């Protein structure tokens, strides 16, 4: 009887101790969260529940990397089954003669096997496959956890299989032999019989060892978890549940904190930001998709989260606070971000990297620290409303080459109001393209107009550089002009402007319909406004970050490409997994520090792996500039041509277009 | 160490200069004004000195009606105080008159080191720092970089043509015309400038200026280009082709 | 009618080209006004250097330490001379020394100063100065006041006649004024190359946009057998060393070919390269000042032009 008492006492004492350590840790984290900024995460509860269910039980994002997803699903599902075992084993110890029965027993056995398969796969992944995304993660912690899991599941099988022999010496009850349904325990119990380990003493030891490996290790696990990256076992599900449900493209939701968006210390984070830090599993999926990381720059979204978490731990342990921006996270890391959002799209536990990066950028900016070329652009936006250092008056100069004048939407009502954007207005290489869009609209007899020199940069990139005040000033300028104009819909050729108009101006009460030109042109095609002749070329399409990922417009450009008779071949990374050109978040104006291979060059090489593809189709003016340069710098001028969807449409519609814009030339 | 930085605004050359073609007069009210680039460097140099030592930095502008934002921006960057000289001034006020006003102020309110941009784009009637020094009989130097404090002396570099420079040392008070700061001027975020507008005040100092020697500017006019390059049209390939043939004609291509 | 005072500067012990220009112009004005020309120079070589200057009188100011430019001493001394001679015009070059002395002396002597002058002539009643303003975007016509003025002149504005004279040279010994002194002379970092000796310069400006693109300029320079130089903003940004800078505060160059790429042509830059034998400029703005001194110009993007040119030149 003494062995049972020892096990019972150990179970209770260790549970209380582990529980105390566990609770203390959570209490600490809760205290930090309590002191952080508010953020509303209780909207759209129904959708929250469904999407949490899909992400948790169907492992939607996890399965994007098949191997890891499957192995994790095995181990994760084992945790659910573990509950059955914990309850069963403890009751068995405390209530003599208790049994979970053969059905549950079989389920437990099946999952013990699945978990073991998962563990073997995980070890193989860490030790043999060694994905780059683990670089910088705490690998020892990974192995410790895998070791504990292995001990637990093997422990289950061991104490179950010894139970029939130990029932009398330990519990004083007689147990029925194990049925074949509980195959693992069944098999092992026969093994013990063959080995002659069924005598009371041997069986008691076997049972006790198995029980200790199972339940007592679980308690150790419980105490260890909150101090390791495996805290996600508890936090992942809540973190997914409180994920951002506002439009993805909205970086700064209303109400904007009165003290601004700058993140200098942990008190400037929201409680969700703090939770993000503890939830991170160090899986490195964000690092694997980050264009800045791929380019060889200092940035890894994973390392930003880990650096912040380490610093927070140190601070909680009584360390002197270190400034987050430029201290805990280096300036190089922060400025390398293109705000493409690939990290957030990849994160299985919905960590929000970009708002943290932008918040820390804002802190640097308030201290006057910013790349000098980007600084010139900020000053240009403030003074002239554009990034080209050109006079405000020259904004509508591209219209000069048109046969039919464009309406001034400030003076007369129009059906569609075209928000042109900086690049399309000022970049001499893009102005032909801008005129082409105007001609297409004229061909389709659309009643449209522009704001002429009343338009300023939308502020989308200013905000992402961290200059919220400038964004706000630009937004107010545009909103004042939009107020003057009469129109039914805004459309824009620039995804960055689209994002600001659609998602960021909401906080100032702006709620008019905004469309990207690909959507608008698809409508026109459906309305029979163009007579299209198939182009018969083979092309791939690059999803711009601010059109695709941030605004979920994936279909319209593809529809348009198909309608003009182009054979569309997808690149490996497309749609929500598209790979950034490297221009976003103000990067296009900043010095290229530490870049080994530009993201745009990598992207062009990706396109070149596609059989027979001669055209690289884009739907963003910045992409035209970035990828044209990339095709040249990789020496592929003869092999691949960068074309805008508007060029394809214009040619299919038989418009008279400048030679250099003829796609099938 | 008390540092005074003299700043002014000048027409934004990105936009068109507005000229009454008949009278040759500049239409000041129709142009946009921005801080003079060299003054930005002077502010930056002063702030860098402040970071090295415990200097107190005051920025000053003659109130020509549009200087508030410029002064708040300097405060946002880290200046300690901002002063607006008030009197009979507007955008057309000459540099000579501005220098006289500043000299009156400095006489009453001594500083150890006075910095300003070495020049401005509109100072055909004289560079302000040199005139302020001349009026006050203070030592001064132009085309200065790299200003550092060494006890009660000020060390700085003065640039001459041909890349030649000298390190000079001066007693205080001294006036220095800054060519370029050690680092490019820092950025002041809009939020921070707005915060300054709420939290700090510009000290207004009234100054009366007597008659000063003024220039009679008869007219401004756009230069008739003495010559203009023969423009080569076409795309980069065509232009390159043409340039190579020009170089060949002149035997500038290696055989 | 007061005399016309010319502040002379010396290079390697002789009158500088700019000082000769100033003297030529002073002589021309003095003749039409019936006035005389007085040259004023500092340092031990001043007496010798001004012996054949085209001036009626010369004042050579000597003293310990005056061979090196001393802003405070020079200014106090010139101020004293101006107050003694009551010149109608005091002409100084728009050099660093001119920037110091011009406005400083004028203010101290209660005279007006006319800066950035690039033309001087007499009309019916007045002497009229033409001045450069707004980075060369505008010119101003300024009447020289009857009471006289200090004028700072942009080098290269007048041209020199080469005439020499026999001025009566007075030597004036002064003590240096305590308060500001030279700690040391900082010789220019010559660096790897001496751009003043290159026959072909591939010169880049603000339009290069990004230091990464300097590689393209370097490749072009190699293909054409030249050297990369630049304008001031490129040095200020730290993208190229000071030794590569062309212009007023950098080097004055006179190569056989000057390729100005993405340089808009601030007056200070033009001053350093306008005498090149052949200037070809690429700048997106056809109305930029560089096009006025260039022989050929183009508005194509330099990032496209540089590789296109390099490719052709390598192919030769």
Share in helix of chain A: 40-55%
The oligomeric state of the chains shown is: heterotrimer
Helicity of chain B, in percent? 25-40%
On the 0 to 100 scale, the average pLDDT of chain A is: 94
Span of the ends, CA to CA of chain A = 91 Å
* Total strand segments of chain A: 9
Shape of chain A: elongated
What strand line-up does the widest sheet of chain A have? 1-3-2-4-5
Rg of chain B (C-alpha, Å): 22 Å
The chain pair forming the largest interface, with residue counts per chain, is: B-C, 84 and 93 residues
- What low-confidence regions of chain B span 5 or more consecutive residues with pLDDT below 50? none
- Number of helical regions of chain B: 6
Beta-strand share of residues of chain A: under 5%
Helix vs. strand class of chain A? mainly alpha
Can you tell me the residue ranges of chain A where pLDDT is under 50 for at least 5 consecutive residues? none
Assign the CATH topology of chain B. Answer: Rossmann fold
| Topology pattern of chain B, helix = H, strand = E | EEEEEHEHEHEHEEEEHEEEH
Proportion of residues in β-strands of chain B: 25-35%
Give the gist of this structure:
The complex is a heterotrimer of chains A (665), B (255) and C (316). Chain A is mainly α and 665 residues long. Chain A has helices spanning 2-35, 45-57, 66-94, 102-129, 139-171, 183-195, 200-224, 232-241, 271-279, 285-289, 291-294, 301-316, 331-336, 342-346, 353-366, 372-384, 422-426, 431-443, 460-465, 468-484, 495-504, 517-526, 555-563, 599-608, 621-633, 645-652, and strands spanning 407-408, 416-419, 448-450, 489-492, 514-516, 537-541, 566-568, 615-618, 641-644.
Q: Could you characterize the architecture of this molecule?
A:
The complex is a heterotrimer of chains A (665), B (255) and C (316). In chain A, helix 25 (621-633) links the parallel strand 8 and strand 9 (641-644). Chain A starts with a helix and ends in a 13-residue tail after the last helix. Chain A contains 26 helices and nine strands. The longest helix of chain A has 34 residues, at 2-35. Chain A has four domains: 3-229, Fumarate Reductase Cytochrome B subunit; 246-366, Orthogonal Bundle (Fumarate Reductase Iron-sulfur Protein, Chain B, domain 2); 380-524, 3-Layer(aba) Sandwich (Rossmann fold), CATH 3.40.50.1860; 529-663, Rossmann fold. Chain A is mainly alpha-helical. In chain A, helix 4 (102-129) runs antiparallel to helix 5 (139-171) and helix 9 packs across helix 12 (301-316). Chain A has helices at residues 2-35, 45-57, 66-94, 102-129, 139-171, 183-195, 200-224, 232-241, 271-279, 285-289, 291-294, 301-316, 331-336, 342-346, 353-366, 372-384, 422-426, 431-443, 460-465, 468-484, 495-504, 517-526, 555-563, 599-608, 621-633, 645-652, and strands at residues 407-408, 416-419, 448-450, 489-492, 514-516, 537-541, 566-568, 615-618, 641-644. The radius of gyration of chain A is 30 Å and the shape is elongated. Chain B is α/β, with parallel strands linked by helices and 255 residues long. Chain B is built from six helices and 15 strands. Chain B has a single domain (2-206), classed as HUPs (Rossmann fold, 3-Layer(aba) Sandwich). In chain B, strand 3 and strand 4 form a beta hairpin. Helix content of chain B is 29%, strand content 29%. The mean pLDDT of chain B is 93. In chain B, helix 2 packs across helix 5 (190-199) and helix 3 (95-108) crosses helix 4. In chain C, 28% of the residues lie in helices and 28% in strands. Chain C has nine helices and 17 strands. In chain C, strands 9-8-7-10-6-1-4-5-11 form a nine-stranded mixed beta sheet. In chain C, strand 4 (37-42), helix 2 (46-49) and strand 5 (57-62) form a beta-alpha-beta unit. Chain C is elongated. Chains B and C meet through helix 4, strand 9, strand 10, strand 11 and strand 14 of B and helix 3, helix 4, strand 7, strand 8 and strand 9 of C. Strand 11 of chain B pairs antiparallel with strand 12 (180-186) of chain C.
């Amino acid at each position: 009887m003494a062995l049972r008492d020892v096990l019972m006492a150990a179970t209770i004492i260790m549970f209380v101790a582990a529980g105390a350590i566990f609770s203390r840790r959570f209490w600490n984290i809760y205290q930090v969260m309590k002191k952080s900024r508010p953020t509303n995460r209780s909207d759209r509860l129904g959708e929250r529940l469904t999407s949490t269910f899909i992400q948790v039980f169907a492992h939607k994002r996890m399965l994007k990397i098949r191997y890891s997803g499957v192995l994790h699903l095995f181990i994760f599902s084992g945790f659910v089954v573990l509950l059955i075992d914990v309850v069963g084993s403890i009751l068995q110890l405390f209530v003599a003669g208790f049994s979970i029965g053969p059905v549950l027993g079989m389920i437990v056995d099946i999952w013990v096997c699945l978990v073991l398969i998962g563990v073997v796969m995980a070890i193989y992944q860490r030790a043999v496959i060694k994905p780059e995304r683990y670089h910088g993660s705490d690998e020892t912690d990974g192995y410790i956890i895998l070791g504990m899991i292995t001990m637990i599941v093997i422990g289950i099988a061991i104490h179950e299989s010894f139970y029939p022999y130990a029932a009398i010496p330990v519990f004083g009850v007689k147990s029925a032999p194990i049925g074949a349904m509980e195959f693992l325990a069944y098999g092992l119990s026969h093994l013990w019989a063959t080995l002659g380990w069924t005598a009371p003493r041997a069986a008691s030891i076997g049972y006790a060892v198995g029980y200790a490996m199972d339940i007592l290790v679980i308690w150790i696990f419980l105490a260890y978890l909150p101090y390791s990256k495996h805290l996600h076992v508890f936090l992942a599900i809540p973190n997914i549940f409180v994920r951002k449900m506002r439009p993805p493209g909205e970086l700064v939701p209303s109400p904007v904190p009165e003290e601004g968006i700058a993140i200098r210390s942990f008190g400037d984070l929201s409680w969700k930001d703090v939770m993000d830090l503890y939830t991170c599993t160090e899986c490195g999926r964000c690092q694997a998709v980050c264009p800045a990381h791929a380019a060889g720059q200092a940035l890894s979204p994973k390392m930003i989260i880990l650096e912040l978490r380490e610093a927070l731990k140190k601070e909680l342990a009584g360390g002197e606070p270190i400034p987050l921006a430029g201290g805990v996270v280096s300036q190089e890391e922060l400025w390398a971000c293109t705000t493409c959002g690939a990290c957030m799209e990849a994160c299985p536990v919905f960590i929000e990297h970009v708002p943290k990066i932008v918040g820390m950028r804002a802190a640097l900016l308030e201290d006057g620290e910013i790349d000098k070329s980007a600084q010139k652009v900020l000053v240009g936006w403030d003074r002239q409303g554009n990034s080209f250092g050109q006079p405000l008056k020259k904004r509508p100069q591209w219209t000069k080459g048109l046969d039919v004048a464009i309406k001034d939407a400030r003076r007369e009502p129009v059906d569609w109001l075209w928000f042109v954007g900086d690049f399309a207005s000022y970049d001499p290489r893009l102005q032909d393209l801008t005129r082409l869009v105007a001609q297409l609209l004229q061909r389709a007899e659309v009643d449209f107009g522009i704001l002429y020199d009343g338009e300023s940069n939308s502020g989308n990139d200013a905000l992402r550089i961290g200059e919220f005040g400038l964004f706000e000033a630009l937004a107010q300028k545009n909103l004042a002009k939009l107020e003057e104009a009469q129109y039914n819909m805004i459309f824009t050729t620039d995804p960055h402007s689209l994002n600001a108009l659609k998602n960021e101006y909401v906080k100032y009460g702006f709620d008019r319909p905004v469309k990207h030109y690909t959507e608008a042109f698809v409508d026109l095609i459906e309305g029979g406004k163009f007579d299209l002749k198939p182009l018969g070329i083979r092309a791939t399409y690059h999803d711009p970050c601010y059109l695709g990922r941030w605004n979920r417009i994936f279909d319209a450009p593809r529809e348009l490409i198909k309608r003009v008779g182009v054979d569309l071949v997808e690149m490996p990374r497309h749609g929500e997994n598209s790979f950034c050109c490297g221009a976003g978040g103000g990067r296009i104006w900043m010095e290229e520090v530490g870049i080994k291979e530009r993201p745009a060059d990598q992207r062009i090489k990706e396109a070149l792996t596609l059989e027979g593809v001669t055209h690289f189709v884009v739907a963003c003016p910045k992409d035209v500039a970035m990828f044209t340069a990339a095709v040249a710098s990789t020496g592929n001028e003869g092999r691949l041509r960068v074309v805008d969807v508007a060029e394809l449409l214009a040619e299919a519609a038989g418009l008279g277009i400048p030679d250099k814009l003829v796609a099938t030339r | 160490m008390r540092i005074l930085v003299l700043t002014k605004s000048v027409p934004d050359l990105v936009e068109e200069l507005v000229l009454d073609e008949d009278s040759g007069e500049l239409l000041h009210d129709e142009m946009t004004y921005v801080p003079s680039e060299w003054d930005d460097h002077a502010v930056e140099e002063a702030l860098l000195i402040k970071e090295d030592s415990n200097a107190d930095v005051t920025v000053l502008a003659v109130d020509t009606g549009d200087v508030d934002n410029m002064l708040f921006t300097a405060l946002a960057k880290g200046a300690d105080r901002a002063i607006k000289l008030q009197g009979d001034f507007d955008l057309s006020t000459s540099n000579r008159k501005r220098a006289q006003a500043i000299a009156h102020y400095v006489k009453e309110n001594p500083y150890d080191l006075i910095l300003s941009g070495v020049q401005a784009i509109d100072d055909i009637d004289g560079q302000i720092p040199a005139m302020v020094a001349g009026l006050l009989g203070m030592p001064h130097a132009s085309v200065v970089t790299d200003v550092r404090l060494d006890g009660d002396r000020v060390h700085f570099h003065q640039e001459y043509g041909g890349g030649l420079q000298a390190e000079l040392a001066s007693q205080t008070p001294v006036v220095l015309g800054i060519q370029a700061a050690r680092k490019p001027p820092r950025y002041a975020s809009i939020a921070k400038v707005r915060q300054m507008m709420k939290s700090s005040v510009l000290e207004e100092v009234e100054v009366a200026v007597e008659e000063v020697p003024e220039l009679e500017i008869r007219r401004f006019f756009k230069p008739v280009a003495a010559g203009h390059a023969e423009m080569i049209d076409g795309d980069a390939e065509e232009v390159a082709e043409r340039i190579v043939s020009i170089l060949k004609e002149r035997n500038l291509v290696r055989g | 009618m007061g005399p016309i005072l010319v502040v002379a500067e010396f290079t390697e012990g002789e009158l500088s080209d700019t000082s000769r220009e100033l003297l030529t112009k002073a002589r021309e004005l003095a003749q039409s006004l019936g006035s005389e020309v007085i040259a004023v120079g500092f340092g031990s070589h001043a007496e010798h250097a001004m012996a054949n200057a085209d001036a009626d009188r010369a004042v050579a100011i000597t003293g310990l330490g005056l061979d090196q430019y001393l802003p405070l001493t020079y200014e106090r001394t010139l101020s004293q001379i101006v107050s003694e001679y009551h010149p109608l015009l005091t002409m100084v070059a728009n050099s660093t020394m001119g920037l110091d002395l011009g406005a400083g002396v004028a203010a101290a002597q209660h005279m007006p100063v006319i800066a950035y002058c690039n033309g001087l002539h007499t009309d019916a009643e007045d002497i009229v100065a033409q001045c450069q303003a707004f980075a060369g975007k505008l010119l101003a016509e300024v009447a020289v006041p009857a009471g006289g003025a200090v004028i700072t002149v942009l080098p290269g504005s007048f041209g020199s006649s080469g005439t020499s004279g026999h001025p009566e040279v007075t030597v004036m010994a002064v003590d240096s004024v305590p308060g500001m002194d030279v700690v040391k002379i900082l010789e220019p970092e010559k660096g790897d190359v001496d751009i003043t000796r290159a026959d072909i310069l591939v010169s880049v400006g603000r339009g290069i946009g990004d230091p990464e693109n300097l590689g393209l300029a370097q490749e072009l320079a190699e293909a054409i057998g030249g050297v990369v130089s630049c304008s001031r903003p490129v040095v200020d940004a730290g993208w190229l060393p000071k030794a590569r800078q062309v212009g007023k505060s950098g080097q004055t160059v006179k190569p056989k070919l000057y390729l100005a790429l993405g340089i808009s042509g601030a007056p200070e830059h033009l001053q350093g390269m306008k005498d090149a034998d052949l200037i070809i400029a690429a700048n997106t703005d056809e109305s930029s000042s560089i096009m006025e001194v260039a022989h050929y110009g183009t508005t194509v993007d330099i990032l496209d032009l540089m590789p296109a040119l390099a490719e052709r030149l390598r192919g030769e």
